[in-house]
Amino acid sequence: MAPASPTFSPLYRQIKSLMMHALESAEWQPGQAIPSEQELAQRFGVSQGTVRKAIDEMAAENLLIRKQGKGTFVASHNDPRALFRFLRLVPENGDLAHPTSVPLECWRAKAGHEASRVLQIEPGEPIIIVRRLLKFSSKPVVVDEIYLPGEIFQGLTIEVLQGWNGSLYSLFESRFGLRMIRAEERIRAVAADRGTADTLNVKEGVPLLSVERVTYTYGDRPVEWRRGLYSTAEHFYLNELN
């Protein structure tokens, strides 16, 4: 059997890999400007065009943000534009006002088989479970149950959640140094059970969207498993396909 051939990686992809390492190691912090293309070209011993191509790809993946006349910055969940990258529920009236997050519960537990598989941790390791409600214009629309690795989120309590004014992902970034890079979702239709119906103020049995999400940080590491139930009486799920 012939030996496998080495995989060729274009030079700009190699530079992108080095820049990703700078992000993963927290050399460049969320919201911080990265060095100029000229400085990076000197650092890596390549042309500015090669660096620019690497930055273009990272900007397309929402890892970096170019600001006209200011430079290139590490993307941050504190940027208001970042909210609707992960929240795809849009009011039918087109009003994109930020929803209000209402923490309901937060407790520590041990990872069962499914949580350990999804979060890639050992069964029995500590996890934190959060239940929260999202309200749009004071109306309950989403109820989430969120599973988080306990080792990463030590110190997360209901008091911390209640005292935070912003999105959960901006809290995770600001307090725990964790940036969410991408997510995978599975969506299906379900009927509201009695408890969910009471929470969302809908009739038992009405159709809801069940959205199961696994969110990843740098290195393709899963750090959040979320199961949400969405009321779509006045909202729809928007997904842009490019």
How many beta-strand runs? 10
Task: Please give the radius of gyration in angstroms.
Answer: 20 Å
Low-confidence stretches: none
Give the spatial strand order of the biggest sheet: 4-5-6-9-8-7
The N- to C-terminal Cα distance equals 41 Å
Q: Tell me about the biggest sheet?
A: 6 strands, antiparallel
Describe the secondary structure blueprint for this structure:
Layout: H1 11-24, H2 37-44, H3 48-60, E1 64-67, E2 71-74, H4 83-86, E3 89-91, E4 100-110, H5 113-119, E5 126-136, E6 139-149, H6 158-162, H7 168-176, E7 182-191, H8 194-200, E8 207-217, E9 221-230, E10 235-237
Helix pairs in contact: 1-3, 2-3
Throw out a few tags for this protein.
single chain; 242 residues; alpha+beta; two-stranded antiparallel ribbon; 10 strands; globular
How would you characterize the overall build of this protein?
- A six-stranded antiparallel sheet has the order 4-5-6-9-8-7. It has a two-stranded antiparallel ribbon with strand order 1-2. Strands 3-10 form a two-stranded antiparallel ribbon.
- The chain has helices at 11-24, 37-44, 48-60, 83-86, 113-119, 158-162, 168-176, 194-200, and strands spanning 64-67, 71-74, 89-91, 100-110, 126-136, 139-149, 182-191, 207-217, 221-230, 235-237.
- Helix 2 (37-44) crosses helix 3.
- With 242 residues, the chain is an alpha+beta fold.
- The model has no long low-confidence stretch (mean pLDDT 90).
- It has eight helices and ten strands.
- Strand 8 (207-217) and strand 9 form a beta hairpin.
